[in-house]
Specification:
It is built from 15 helices and 8 strands. By secondary structure, the chain is of the alpha+beta class. The chain has 2 domains: 205 residues, Endonuclease III, domain 1 (Orthogonal Bundle), CATH 1.10.340.30; 123 residues, Alpha-Beta Complex (Nucleoside Triphosphate Pyrophosphohydrolase). α1 crosses α11, α2 packs across α3 and α9 packs across α10. The longest helix has 16 residues. It is globular. Bound molecules: iron/sulfur cluster.
């Protein structure tokens, strides 16, 4: 076995993080955890993972659940396309009767890419495959003092792969990246593979990986209205494809400008919903930052009920508290709803 892998695994055997999806790994549990862990911290994922496993102990249970229920359980975890793909995958796996047994088959599942297919294959199926996520890419960039591209990190990770322990090796690298070889202030003094690290030897750790170019994130103005009727509130369901797909929210218009003119807001309400009033008092206001978009959100009291209920939505529903607890809501809508309840 390669010296780096040997030192890494010796450390992992002593200090591996105790995570619920690591005990009794199966394709279903590993897949569930990997879907949730994409762009999300372990501590955030933990309660969701337990909640999903309690509600859907088998992939067949997840496949049989209505999408609204799945999205409701997912509410607050973000990146909702993951939940929709997960639901689709559960149906496909249930129809086939089993999860695929190889990387190619896993890769064909919705939402399962190069990283995840190799992670599931190595951890749950014992296949000798290296994988590279953000943490592992950073560790490899530093170990080899290599600025990239990303493909090079796959070559490095594969070169160290210990036959027969690929799952542990991949998880050890994930742990190392999360706990020791962190993006800022890596703890090189505690690192089990320091003696194999080229960036450390060259005193150039801060140069790897090279900084990414900053993206310009567009700002969007979202103007929503609260319509009440006999203890019910009007909600629209976003189309299943796209941002917040399948989630319910207060009817709203969106404009591609952070501070549009009042006349532009009014015109959008008129064209989307046939509403021609100025709206009522401001109830809730928030700047909501996503990785690819910044929302300037306002919720105002609705005066006239929409003439055309559909607007940009696939469905409309007057809902009470009990109904709301069974559907998916974005974090932004949940916060706005909390302001309405006060
Ligand atoms: S020595 Fe430092 S930079 Fe190198 S792998 Fe360990 S923590 Fe990362």
């Amino acid at each position: 076995m390669d010296g780096m892998a040997q030192d890494l695994l010796a450390w992992y055997d002593r200090c591996a993080r105790v995570l619920p999806w690591r005990s009794f790994p199966s394709p279903y549990r590993t897949w569930l955890s990997e879907v949730m862990l994409q762009q999300t911290q372990v501590d955030t994922v933990m309660p969701y993972y337990h909640r999903f496993l309690a509600a859907y102990p088998r992939v067949e249970d997840l496949a049989a659940a209505p999408l609204d229920e799945v999205l409701s359980l997912w509410s607050g975890l973000g990146y909702y396309s993951r939940a929709r793909n997960m639901h689709k995958t559960a149906k496909m796996v249930t129809e086939c009767g089993t999860f695929p047994f190889d990387i190619k088959g896993l890769r064909a599942l919705p939402g399962v890419g190069e990283y995840m297919s190799a992670a599931i294959a190595s951890i749950a199926l014992g296949i000798d495959a290296a994988t590279v996520d953000g943490n592992i890419a950073r560790v490899m960039a530093r170990l080899h003092a290599d600025p990239g591209p990303r493909k090079a990190m796959w070559v490095h990770a594969s070169a160290h792969l210990p036959a027969g322990r690929a799952g542990d090796y991949n998880q050890a690298l994930m742990d190392l990246g999360a706990r020791i070889c962190r993006p800022k202030s890596p703890k090189c003094g505690e690192c089990p593979v320091e003696s194999h690290c080229q960036a450390f030897a060259d005193a150039r750790v801060s140069e790897f990986p090279p900084p990414k170019k900053k993206r310009v994130v567009p700002e969007v103005f979202m103007h929503a209205r609260l319509f009440r009727r006999d203890g019910f509130i009007l909600f629209g369901r976003r189309p299943v494809k796209g941002l917040w797909g399948g989630l319910w929210e207060f009817p709203a218009i969106e404009l591609a400008a952070p501070k549009p003119k009042v006349s532009a807001v009014k015109a959008a309400w008129r064209s989307e919903f046939g509403i021609d009033d100025d709206g009522g008092q401001l109830i809730f206001e928030r700047k909501h930052v996503l990785t690819h978009r910044i929302y300037r959100y306002q919720l105002v009291l609705g005066v006239d009920v929409p003439e055309r209920e559909m607007g940009p939505y696939s469905a409309f529903e007057w809902m009470n508290e009990a109904m709301l607890s069974k559907v998916g809501l974005s974090t932004l809508t949940t916060k706005a709803l909390a302001a309405v309840r006060v």
